[in-house]
Specification:
Layout lengths: L1 E3 L4 H9 L4 H5 L20 H7 L9 E5 L8 H9 L3 E5 L2 H13 L10 E5 L3 H6 L7 H4 L15 H5 L2 E2 L2 E2 L2 E6 L1 E6 H6 L8 H12 L14 H11 L18 H16 L13 H9 L5 E5 L1 H6 L10 E4 L12 E6 L7 H11 L2 H9 L7 H4 L2 H6 L3 H7 L14 H16 L5 H15 L2
Parallel strand pairs: 1-3, 2-3, 2-4
Antiparallel strand pairs: 4-11, 5-6, 7-11, 8-9, 8-10
Helix pairs in contact: 11-12, 11-20, 20-21
Length: 451
């Protein structure tokens, strides 16, 4: 199995903060691979026979899996290498590069062969590329002879499976999905006689208090792009707002949405200790590192327990508690994740389907969850052996009850909407525009985007 890995901005940060993990995140396995088994294609020729007669020499004779790295992905490599090491090649991309790969596939000439057979896709991209015909519908495969009899699609968490659908049709299988939670330094809350926050006001008061003690009161991703949009959405729904209303029209400048942005900006500003940098460019990794290295009292994001409890360099192990995201008008948790999709013009469709089943199977669930990923299966959440080692699993399962199914609205135009929101949210967070003005501009931009 070949793994092509690259250094990115996030990887550079990990090198600085997590030097002991560089061999895990940056080292490829370097194993020489063999060609895939021959399997008939639609023309009756084997895949390799076809490849040998094609003039295009850029397409590998291995199955190609395009991915972006996560700490729990290291648990997947042994699974893949043991079963598919002589037939598969893996190449790492940044999330933006993965999106670009899907854009290339969507604009490719009909009849061509894609340069990847499996791609990690953010759940928010599924509707866009399913609507363009870029992704292969999986329902026919799941009802055919290629499905593993032990796979049990009904055991996958329904909310996560819904993230893989467009117009009721399945186009992907979950790889890693989660809700969002609030992590607190329980030891510090107890030391200072503070109660764990259940409401937005309680969280704000706690954040200000701890900032006065020389800690970041609360940290969350908020870099421009998808990070700042995700961060604001965490507040939008508890405040009673929504991105699109019941008729599918923009609602981002509603009074509830404006209050959510006002609160978000206030929290970011006032949770910072005097003299500390603003950290407005904080991405997921940077926010996580701030908390697990003991620099923050609270952390708000997705997949929080697994990210904290399963990393050896965390200085806050056994010092944390995990809570529902604070409420305002309602209790609401995020719903997002990474999925595995097969392009509609993949070269090795059968092998690709076999691999995405294996990675999301019951048999491999425990191994990946122990590496830090949230369960994607009901049986994983309810596994006694896992619960004994990871006592937070029942809380995560219950957190799904308040998950917002359209946290990132399930529309093909989401990426454009996200870009418009990022621009407006960034101007508000930086103080260049007040929240109402910023969201009014986003509202107008979204009206122009929607059909």
């Amino acid at each position: 199995m070949r793994r092509h890995k690259k250094k990115t901005a996030k990887t550079a940060m990990k090198l600085w903060l997590l030097a002991a993990l560089t061999c895990v995140f940056l080292q490829g396995c370097g194993k020489k691979t063999q060609e895939p088994d021959e399997r008939p294609d639609q023309s009756g020729q084997s895949d390799l026979d076809t490849a040998e007669t094609q003039a295009d020499s850029t397409r590998s004779d291995y199955l190609m899996f395009a991915y972006t790295n996560h700490f729990w992905f290291e648990a997947i490599w042994p699974i893949l290498e043991q079963a598919y090491g002589d037939r598969a090649e893996f190449k790492e991309y940044t999330p933006d590069e993965l999106y670009g790969k899907l854009q290339e596939a969507a604009s490719a000439a009909p009849g061509g062969v894609n340069d990847f057979d499996i791609i990690m896709a953010d759940a928010s991209w599924i509707c866009e590329f399913a609507s363009k015909g870029t992704l292969l519908p999986l329902d026919p495969l799941l009802s055919g002879s290629a499905v593993d009899p032990a796979y049990d699609i009904n055991d996958i968490v329904p909310a996560y499976l819904d993230l893989c659908k467009y117009n009721g049709q399945l186009y992907a299988l979950p790889l890693g999905a989660s809700t969002n939670t609030l992590a607190i330094r329980q030891d510090l809350f107890e030391l200072y006689g503070m109660q764990p926050p259940a409401t937005m006001d309680e969280m704000y008061d706690a954040a200000v208090y701890f900032s006065e003690q020389g800690l970041y009161g609360a940290v969350s991703r908020r870099a421009a792009g998808s990070d700042i949009v995700y961060a604001w959405l965490q507040f939008l729904y508890p405040f009673g707002g929504q991105v699109l209303d019941g008729s599918g029209q923009s609602a981002v400048n509603s009074p509830e949405a404006v209050r959510a942005l006002e609160f978000f900006c206030k929290l970011v500003k006032d949770a910072k200790p005097a003299g500390f940098p603003e950290e407005n460019e904080t991405d997921f990794d940077a926010a996580l590192n701030s908390f697990r290295l003991g620099r923050a009292a609270m952390y708000l994001d997705a997949a929080v327990p697994g990210a904290i409890e399963n990393l050896d360099l965390s200085t806050v192990l056994e010092k944390c508690a995990y809570l529902p995201f604070p409420s305002e008008q309602r209790q609401a948790s995020a719903l997002s994740g990474w999925m595995m999709a097969i392009p509609s013009n993949a070269k090795y469709t059968d092998l690709a389907f076999e691999i995405i089943q294996a990675v999301s199977s019951k048999a491999n669930e425990e191994q990946i969850v122990l590496a830090g990923r949230d369960p994607i299966r009901v049986s994983g959440f309810q596994n006694p052996a896992l619960i004994e080692q990871l006592p937070y699993l029942p809380f995560l399962e219950k957190n799904l009850e308040t998950a917002v199914s359209g946290f990132q609205p399930r529309v093909p135009e989401w990426r454009q909407i996200e870009e418009a929101l990022s621009q407006s949210l960034t101007t508000a967070l930086e103080g260049a525009k007040d929240p109402q003005t910023a969201l009014d501009e986003a509202h107008q931009a979204i009206i122009a985007i929607l059909p």
